[in-house]
């Protein structure tokens, strides 16, 4: 009797623990389905039409305002581990000067590149304040008009 109770307890615990380790999937952003992209015709449709069909873009080009990006990814995470990217797509829609579609480019996860961050810091003038100095330094500064 004791052995069977112990076995049932171990099995129940194992099931509960393994259920907690199931992967969690999440969709981030917006990946337009192919059926919506097929509605877009190069040289014919305008920005307004694209916005009506696909919705607002995820972002617009920083240096070229005539490029709209629809960015989306599907990620999966196991328990407490880092999430991994399962699928990533970027649809870039380029417009000409008249606001009509010039061409559409699709990018996938394989087109992406890792960018290394630079470890240098820009020096600033003045001195660094500690937490206490910042709190004490702000006493009495409330409700003063801002000077520009």
Task: Describe this structure as you would to a colleague.
With about 150 residues, the chain is α+β, with helices and mostly antiparallel strands. The protein has a domain at about 35-75 and about 90-110: Beta-lactamase Inhibitory Protein, Chain:B, domain 1. Helices cover about 25% and strands about 25% of the residues. It is built from four helices and five strands. The chain has helices at about 1-20, 35, 45-55, 130-140; strands spanning about 25-30, 60, 65-75, 85-95, 100-110. Strands 1, 2, 3, 4 and 5 form a five-stranded antiparallel beta sheet that branches. Strand 4 and strand 5 form a beta hairpin. The radius of gyration is 27 Å and the shape is flat. The chain starts with a helix and ends in a 10-residue tail after the last helix. The mean pLDDT is about 85.
Features:
5-stranded antiparallel beta sheet
Helix-strand layout with pairing:
Blueprint (H helix, E strand, L loop, with lengths): L1 H19 L3 E6 L4 H4 L9 H8 L4 E2 L6 E11 L6 E12 L5 E8 L22 H8 L10
Antiparallel strand pairs: 1-3, 2-3, 3-4, 4-5
């Amino acid at each position: 009797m004791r052995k069977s109770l112990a076995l049932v307890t171990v099995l129940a615990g194992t099931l509960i623990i393994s259920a907690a380790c199931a992967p969690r999937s999440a969709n981030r952003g917006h990946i337009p389905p192919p059926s919506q992209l097929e509605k877009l015709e190069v040289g014919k449709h305008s920005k307004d039409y694209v916005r009506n069909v696909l919705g607002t873009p995820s972002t617009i080009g920083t240096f070229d305002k005539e490029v709209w990006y629809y960015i989306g990814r599907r990620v999966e995470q196991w328990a407490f581990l880092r999430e991994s990217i399962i699928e990533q797509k970027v649809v870039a829609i380029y417009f000409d000067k008249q606001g009509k579609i010039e061409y559409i480019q699709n990018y996938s996860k394989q087109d992406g590149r890792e960018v290394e961050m630079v470890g240098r810091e820009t020096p600033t003038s003045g001195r660094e304040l500690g937490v206490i100095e910042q709190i004490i330094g702000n006493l009495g500064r409330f409700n003063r008009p801002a000077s520009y």
